[in-house]
Design goal:
The chain is mainly beta and about 90 residues long. It is built from 1 helix and 5 strands. The strands form 2 sheets. A 3-stranded antiparallel beta sheet has the order 3-2-5, with no helix packed on it. A two-stranded antiparallel ribbon has the order 1-4.
Length: about 90
Amino acid sequence: MPETKINIRSPFYKRYQQADLEKVVLDIYVYSGTKNTDKGSPVITLEKTPIGTNDYVIFELSEILKEYLEPNINTPLNSNITYVKWLQLEATLT
C-alpha cells in the first residue's frame, strides 16, 4: 500500500474515478501507534456523487482530519504510541 505524508494545514485532495461512476463511499480511519496497529472503526464515512456527466469525485480531506487530531505537548517526540498518527482511506466505488 503506498504511503503519503499529509500536512493537514495544506489542502489534501483525493480523487476517485471510474467509468459510469454513480457514487463513492469513503471510510476514514485515524489511529495512533504503529502502522500495523488495529485501525478500529472508521472515524467518519463520507459519500459523494459525481457532478453532471463527470466520471470522478474529489474529496478535500485536510479540514476533516483536523477534527480528529489533537496536539499533545506532553508526548515525547520519540514516542510512537501517541505522537504518530495514521490515516487509512477505504473507498467503495459504484
